[in-house]
């Protein structure tokens, strides 16, 4: 719970009363490696916070899995396109390793906004950050060559690259694993 509170405090100040409210709204959960937090076709009913572990977001496109994002310790996890309107998700969210998370339901998030002094401000700032990240990622996928997307991946996730299988990294970058190997060799030769 300590990491969760520190992360929220990066957005808003918290009083002891706010911290007490938050501790009643989130619940701790353990996930096994490979377990899904969300499966496509289901409504995302929770926002998750990773205390320990790593997850990936992926979608099935033309029968093939496409990894679209990763989250690690100290980050919130959610398919906001499903969570906010409470509509079925097109995305899967899967634990890449055994993980400890805190979850808050859609209903409890509304309580958070109402009872935590600057709760609505937190929601606005956090969603704004998610939106900007999503736009940057989409823009990169359409405009940047694979080598630059791979370099951007390492800038965004330097501390977890060794924890992610290479085929998921290749999928995230938008290339086949063989192409990723060639890019890695080229980049290693320029250093």
Automatic annotation (TrEMBL):
Pfam families under this entry? cNMP_binding
PROSITE patterns associated with the record: CNMP_BINDING_3 (PS50042)
Q: Which organism is it from?
A: Xanthocytophaga agilis
Superkingdom assignment = Bacteria
Q: Where is the Cyclic nucleotide-binding domain?
A: 4-110
Name-wise, this protein is Crp/Fnr family transcriptional regulator
Spell out the CDD domains in the cross-references.
CAP_ED
């Amino acid at each position: 719970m300590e990491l969760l509170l520190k992360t929220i405090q990066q957005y808003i100040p918290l009083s002891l009363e706010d911290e007490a409210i938050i501790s009643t709204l989130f619940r701790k959960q353990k996930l096994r490696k490979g377990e899904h937090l969300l499966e496509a076709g289901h409504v995302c009913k929770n926002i998750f916070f990773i205390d320990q572990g790593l997850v990936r977001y992926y979608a099935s496109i033309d029968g093939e899995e496409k990894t679209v994002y990763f989250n690690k310790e100290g980050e919130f996890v959610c398919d906001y396109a499903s969570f906010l309107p409470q509509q079925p998700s097109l995305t899967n969210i899967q634990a890449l390793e055994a993980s400890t998370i805190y979850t808050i339901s859609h209903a409890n998030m509304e309580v958070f906004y109402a009872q935590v002094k600057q709760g609505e401000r937190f929601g606005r700032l956090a969603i704004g950050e998610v939106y900007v990240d999503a736009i940057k990622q989409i823009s990169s996928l359409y405009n940047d060559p694979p080598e630059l997307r791979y370099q951007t991946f390492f800038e965004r996730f330097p501390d977890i690259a060794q924890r992610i299988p290479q085929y998921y990294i290749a999928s995230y970058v938008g290339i086949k694993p063989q192409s990723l190997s060639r890019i890695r060799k080229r980049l290693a030769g320029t250093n």
